[in-house]
Amino acid sequence: MSKGNTFENDLMLLIFNNTNAANIGDATGLRGSSTAGSLHFSLHTADPGETGNQTTSECTYTSYARVAVARSSSGFTVTANSVSPTSAVTFPAGTGGSGTATHFAIGTDSSGTGKILYKGTITPNIVTGNGITPSLTTASTITED
């Protein structure tokens, strides 16, 4: 069973742009937050899976940190049931360590076991380590369907 296209787009607008989804439950619908806040991108060395959290297979190169992106149209572009960052998501440059980022996730927390909202593969994979600045492009798209 799937959702209707209009609702899929409305849901993504609510999650990523903090935009109200009208006419659900009552006239006010599903409301955005009074303070929109941010969502946090993380990099992973394997698929964190359906039961994983933001720490599952998370990259650990030296200087790695999750990247906050504002829940607004300045942070995310939502169109035709898909979402992508409005600009590149650039992670801190590595100062040591190594690994290969094969997946990314968008979650709720800047650190710790935050909830994964959406996840996807990185193509091509990103080899991390000393002197490398991992970046996800605006082509890093998640589709609701």
Write a compact overview of the structure shown.
With 145 residues, this protein is mostly beta strands.
Provide a descriptive summary of the structure in words:
By secondary structure, this protein is mostly beta strands. It has one domain (37-143). 9% of the residues lie in helices and 34% in strands. It has one helix at residues 5-17, and strands spanning 38-44, 67-70, 76-79, 82-85, 89-90, 98-107, 116-129, 135-136, 142-143. A 4-stranded antiparallel β-sheet has the order 2-1-6-7, with no helix packed on it. Strands 3-4-9 form a 3-stranded antiparallel β-sheet, covered by helices on one side. Strands 5-8 form a two-stranded antiparallel ribbon. The termini are close together.
Estimate percent helicity. under 10%
Query: Going across the major beta sheet, what is the strand order?
Result: 2-1-6-7
Q: Main sheet, how many strands, which sense, barrel?
A: 4 strands, antiparallel
Total domain modules: 1
Average predicted confidence as pLDDT: 95
Terminal Cα separation, in Å?
A: 10 Å
The proportion of strand residues reads: 25-35%
Multimerization state: single chain
Low-confidence stretches: none
| Morphology | elongated
Structural class: mainly beta
**Rg result:** 16 Å
Question: Count of helical segments?
Answer: 1
Q: How many DSSP E strands?
A: 9
SSE succession = HEEEEEEEEE
How is the secondary structure organized here?
Layout: H1 5-17, E1 38-44, E2 67-70, E3 76-79, E4 82-85, E5 89-90, E6 98-107, E7 116-129, E8 135-136, E9 142-143
Antiparallel strand pairs: 1-2, 1-6, 3-4, 4-9, 5-8, 6-7
